[in-house]
Amino acid sequence: MTQIRSPHLTICLSIIIPVYNVEKYIQECLLNLCNQIENTIEVIIVNDGSKDHSVQIINEFIDNLPDSLKQNFIVIHQKNQGVSHARNNGVKNAKGSYITFIDSDDKVADNYIAKILSAIQACPDLIQFNAYCFFENNPLKNYHLSQPALSGLYTVNDEILYEIFNKNNWFSWLRTYKRELLLSNPFPTNMTHFEDAFIVSKIFTEIQTIFIIKESIYKYRILESSATREKNLLMKDRLLNSCALLINELIQNTQEKKVFTIPLVHFSYIYIDESKKCKGYFVTNSNWRKISKELRKLKLDTTIVQTKRERIFFIFLHYGVLGHYLARKLSKLLK
């Protein structure tokens, strides 16, 4: 680990950036951020065993910074273990009272840090903001994430949780967390997909206050070759295995708090949708029976699910692929 931060610096915010083979984007990511750095900020770059020129670019970038900025950057090297390991490693080494994440191929707005620091003044358990999603090769498809029509500091209650959960935006980089929340809720290292939803949904039920920033201060780059869009069968198998693990976790959580019904129905729908694309009708139905058997044991209040398609899907739960098809068709008819 390379650490050039002054040991006497009091850190308010730790920004963790996992890096793996992003030589095309990492300089833009860091350049986009460094002009906003203050003395109370540390940037922890976790190199997850990159095999391209990412590390060289990072080192050259930091070497060329003014001495007053170099002390705010930490570089950690680990063998390739995946993004969850990288984030957990960053959290373990973070000194900030609050922690936030930036993916190394993304960007942030010019007021990203200023907005977060302003929200920190209210001492919330969690800060949530909006993001602008941009397609590298097709800007006509760009959009802002859908967010609750809320702004400012709130005490968390069921109404707020239902509103946030129904947006199903579980990205870890969409929020800033009190450090303790991440120390007690590490990212699952046995999942290659949906690891954000695994911990973020749980964290929401542990907080008492939230500060919501309406502006899109994060800029999420959508790559056609990203993990969630990968077409090869090995990646699809990993996606489906991760989704099944998440569903099992949500089943357990739903028994404690009914708000988990919302992501449970959401990711059950995703499981069927993704499985039928690569596994076919019979394999998908066979795999789904194992999951739906556990779901049917629950007495779920699906009235809190706002998405019609997913609410209808749960009515036809035991029909598997056919139920998924009926939910899509009926939800379109009801629009």
Radius of gyration: 21 Å
Number of H- or I-type helical stretches: 13
Summarize the biggest pleated sheet.
Answer: 11 strands, mixed
Q: Roughly what percent helix? A: 40-55%
Span between N and C termini?
A: 55 Å
Q: Helix- and strand-based class?
A: alpha/beta
Instruction: Give the percentage of residues in beta strands.
Output: 15-25%
Low-confidence stretches: 1-5
| Average of the residue pLDDT scores | 91
User: How many strands in all?
Assistant: 11
Shape: globular
- Following the backbone from N to C, one meets helices and strands in this order, namely EEHEHHEHEEHEEEHEHHEHHHHH
Summary tags:
335 residues, alpha/beta, eleven-stranded mixed sheet, 11 strands, 43% helix, 19% strand
How would you explain this protein's 3D organization?
Strand 7 and strand 8 form a beta hairpin. Mean pLDDT is 91; it is low at 1-5. This protein has helices spanning 26-34, 54-63, 67-70, 83-93, 112-120, 158-165, 179-183, 195-204, 233-254, 261-278, 280-296, 308-315, 321-333, and strands at residues 2-3, 13-19, 41-48, 73-78, 98-101, 107-108, 126-135, 143-144, 152-155, 175-178, 209-222. The N and C termini lie far apart (55 Å). Helix 1 (26-34) packs parallel to helix 2. The protein is α/β, with parallel strands linked by helices. It is built from 13 helices and eleven strands. Strands 1, 2, 3, 4, 5, 6, 7, 8, 9, 10 and 11 form an eleven-stranded mixed β-sheet that branches. The radius of gyration is 21 Å and the shape is globular.
In short:
By secondary structure, the chain is α/β, with parallel strands linked by helices. The chain has helices spanning 26-34, 54-63, 67-70, 83-93, 112-120, 158-165, 179-183, 195-204, 233-254, 261-278, 280-296, 308-315, 321-333; strands at residues 2-3, 13-19, 41-48, 73-78, 98-101, 107-108, 126-135, 143-144, 152-155, 175-178, 209-222. The chain is globular.
